[in-house]
Amino acid sequence: MASPTTAWSIAPEPFDSPVAAALWRAYYTEVSDRWYLLHEGRPTDPDELEREIAANTGDRLAPPDGVLLVARYAGEPAGTAGVRLLAPATAELKRVYLRAEARGKGGGALLVTAAEDRARRLGARRIVLDTRADLVEARALYARLGYEESEPHNDDPYADHWFTKTLVRSAAPTGG
């Protein structure tokens, strides 16, 4: 029997693939409904949901300055994390998401770590992110992974917390 961590695979995915689109829809529906239920006692208006999904295609996560990673659990698409360069040495972590049925199996940390590795490959020495106050699980994950709260790096109207982390370079392999 495979351990929970070996059941995971993470690989780049085109931001406009059907898998990426389905995960973006699931992500946006969950975080939007969460906000509206908390603040207005109702789910997201379906028309608003469609407008926002269409307006945020994820094209900023396309190569050469970005990447979208898709996590699969036991072969099934389970989550995403995106990275894009904001400046030559600074990357931004975006769209970190795991489907509810995949949570609690170690995938969040694996996904963020894979995104950090991709940020390093893009030349970043620092990674930043923003998140909302109601996404307490995400904030706990980031803190556990060494992210520290920082001053805002953007003016996103939905962001309540900003984080940063220095990306330590992996040691170069030794030997011949």
TrEMBL record:
Q: What class of enzyme is it?
A: transferase
The domain of life is: Bacteria
An annotated Gene Ontology molecular function: acyltransferase activity
Residues in domain N-acetyltransferase? 21-168
Report keywords, A-Z.
Acyltransferase, Transferase
Q: Which SUPFAM superfamilies match?
A: Acyl-CoA N-acyltransferases (Nat)
Q: Transferase: present as a keyword of the record?
A: yes
EC id:
2.3.-.-
- Show the InterPro entries listed in the entry: Acyl_CoA_acyltransferase (IPR016181), Bact_Acetyltransf (IPR050832), GNAT_dom (IPR000182)
Q: What is this protein called?
A: GNAT family N-acetyltransferase
Q: Which organism is this protein's natural source? A: Streptomyces heilongjiangensis
Which lineage is the organism of this entry classified under, starting from the top rank? Bacteria, Bacillati, Actinomycetota, Actinomycetes, Kitasatosporales
